[in-house]
Prior knowledge:
Number of helices: 5
Shape: globular
Oligomer: single chain
Number of domains: 1
Helix content: 55-70%
CATH class: Mainly Alpha
CATH superfamily: lambda repressor-like DNA-binding domains
Distance between the termini: 23 Å
Strand content: under 5%
Low-confidence stretches: none
Structural class: mainly alpha
Radius of gyration: 11 Å
Amino acid sequence: MRDSFADYYKMIGLKVAYYRKLKGLTQEQLAETMDVDTSFIGQIEAPNIHKAISMNTLFRISSALEIPPYKLLQFD
Length: 76
């Protein structure tokens, strides 16, 4: 991954954590809803790990969190 995108992946991860907590879900519960391993959610949310995700994964996360996908990409 290019370093120039690292900040974007960090911000996406922070948004996932924010909306997950807002919904009252643990990483384990979100992972179960998405049928992925808990460590995968942990990697996405970890601010020191810049985990690249596909658009499909972004859509699956937004669906599991019941939010529109753009909210994960809206960097205020």
